[in-house]
Write a structure and sequence with these properties.
Layout lengths: L7 E4 L27 H10 L4 E4 L14 E5 L4 H17 L1
Antiparallel strand pairs: 1-3, 2-3
Helix pairs in contact: 1-2
């Protein structure tokens, strides 16, 4: 997929995974992390925000280069920290159902 890096933001499942440290890539508080998050769950959360996105399934997070966990590439409409916060809220709401 060709894209201008300035206009897209990457979300990795590792950003939200409760079981890893911040130094390995977690971007939310440990208490707010999601255990065993999947790319499909992350996709549903991003989709519910009505933002344009693409799913890239065969990508590896650099800290876990040996795992093909995939990633979501989201059109940049809001700051990344805000996007991560909103997606994390959606993930928690989905898990509570």
């Amino acid at each position: 997929m060709s894209r201008d890096e300035e206009f897209w933001q990457v979300l990795w499942p590792s950003y939200f995974r409760a079981g890893i440290s911040r130094s390995l890539g977690r971007r939310v508080k440990k208490a707010d992390g999601i255990p065993d998050i999947t790319l499909d769950e992350l996709e549903k959360a991003v989709k519910s925000l009505n933002l344009p996105y693409k799913v890239e399934r065969n990508k590896s997070y650099p800290a876990f280069w040996y795992k093909k966990e995939g990633r979501i590439v989201v059109k940049k409409k809001i700051p990344k920290t805000e996007l991560i916060r909103l997606v994390n809220e959606k993930l928690h709401a989905m898990r509570e159902k």
